[in-house]
Structure prediction request, 264 residues.
Amino acid sequence: MEAALKAMSDPTRREILQLVQHEELAAGAIASNFTVSRPAISQHLAVLKSAGLIDERRSGVKRLYRTKVEGMAELKAFLEMFWDVRLSRLKAAVEADTKKKETCDDNTKS
Amino acid sequence: MTTPKADTTSLTRQISIDAPAATVFKYLIDPELMCTWMGQACVFEPFEGGEYRCEINENIVAGGKVLEVVQDQKIVYTFGWEGGENPVTVGSSKVEITLEESNGSTLVKLFHSELVAAVEEHGGGWDHYLARLATAATGGDAGPDPVANPPADA
Prediction:
């Protein structure tokens, strides 16, 4: 995860990630969105690839890039666990409260 | 594009609670009741623009702004953790909790979205933070479960 975060610390790389998040693009198409040189973009793509944030696929002479799900998915997986724990506690607290109230209602008939 | 979109910027969790929505709702917005499931000290101002804040423990504090409150049905607030080293900064993502009651039970749906923006604002150093947060989240702060066994009279 460390490498992924370092890779994402650069604004150009973050923009690249957004560009290829839902659409597979060739290096040239990616570079056309930036003023920095094509070699610089290739360098950024290499960093993103080695950090596990994008996938590279060859199609003929082109190399196509797309955001890899697994890299970004780590935070998501963590948060899912975070909320699962919280929601199960919510359930336990509410259900205990409800049962208590029912008992009280039975006792006092209020 | 033939590959289906794999959305890593949002997540959905849900749980069914054996209680009416009105009861569950109280636990979402009453600061004292929020403490039974979310943290040790909580603030929830139930109106648009109100403050949301929840101390999960002394070191870890979640915060944001209330965006929407629909009585017994829905709350929406921005969410993140205080402190420079964490991956989701205060108010940078969005949490939406909806309640659907049927036959006396309530389905609680939690939708946490806009996580990409949250990640992008952050530079690095997650691992350490998430490890600490994981400890807090999975019971490091929990103490004895007050509802599991009612205290016996001594």
About this structure: DSSP finds five helices and three strands in chain A.
